[in-house]
Amino acid sequence: xxxxxxxxxxxxxxxxxxxxxxxxxxxxxxxxxxxxxxxxxxxxxxxxxxxxxxxxxxxxxxxxxxxxxxxxxxxxxxxxxxxxxxxxxxxxxxxxxxxxxxxxxxxxxxx
Amino acid sequence: xxxxxxxxxxxxxxxxxxxxxxxxxxxxxxxxxxxxxxxxxxxxxxxxxxxxxxxxxxxxxxxxxxxxxxxxxxxxxxxxxxxxxxxxxxxxxxxxxxxxxxxxxxxxxxxxxxxxxxxxxxxxxxxxxxxxxxxxxxxxxxxxxxxxxxxxxxxxxxxxxxxxxxxxxxxxxxxxxxxxxxxxxxxxxxxxxxxxxxxxxxxxxxxxxxxxxxxxxxxxxxxxxxxxxxxxxxxxxxxxxxxxxxxxx
Lengths: 111, 249
Prior knowledge:
The structure holds 2 protein chains of 2 kinds.
Chain A: H1 3-27, H2 35-53, H3 56-59, H4 64-79, H5 84-100, H6 102-108
Helix pairs in contact in A: 4-5
Chain B: H1 2-36, H2 40-49, H3 53-64, H4 69-79, H5 81-93, H6 100-109, H7 112-118, H8 127-150, H9 157-181, H10 183-201, H11 203-213, H12 217-236, H13 244-248
Helix pairs in contact in B: 1-2, 1-3, 1-8, 1-9, 2-8, 3-4, 6-8, 7-9, 9-10, 10-11, 10-12
């Protein structure tokens, strides 16, 4: 892996990341009129965000059980419309605590 | 002018937790870059140019594997397809008269998490608010990358790992309040989550997809499954007016 290779790789990463974000913001300023396309765009972000969340949230290095716990806590808090800081902080702390006891819990459950 | 300032300030405040979540992520990426043989300077420039965790992770994996430029380009393009969707949606929520310069900067900061936070706002998203939201996370992104490159043992590893939950919680906090208020969004979230779980979470199904489409299968699956779910919802519940309506239905 020489220097030129790394720099060209960095430029490719920049182009693919920035241009996919920038082009729609520059060229699609006008409100879209077509009802189907407008509806599609209104729903798509929620579909994308959910499919980025699942199943990755359960597969991160903190383990399956802490993942499920943090996931449920975050959903409950968000459903109760708690502030963002509360949702983030509580679910992360619970995940961390569950992580510390993960092996004990798993063996108690017979895994 | 005063309004500009207060919107920016409000954005900074709301974006602060994202920055905290990004610190360990940028840090981890920095550690990986340094251990993988990146020079300090190139690793930090990479982070500042590309405000994306998923993209950087994949780019480094591809480079460590000595992939050809063409395959790096195609893989990263597929991974970033979702950016087009998110930016198209964001563009609909910005005022038409937001200047080109501000749009160019906003494009830099439209990450998954920042997008997820800003769309929680009702009505149009003010450009200055968005700029406020992205400022601290971008700063934290740079600092995390620098620190990660310099020292690999500053933050206990367990805490870094647990903090990745904060980024997922960010996504949850964007989706859940919206699906509580709107049946179509509930439908979209459940269907796309289910599709994603089946295609990426079940090992045997995922292996078949990887055999068919190669390593970037999960990015294709993500985009295809999302478009499929949203298209069904768009047919059943067409949105009559601007985007803000569905959120308050």
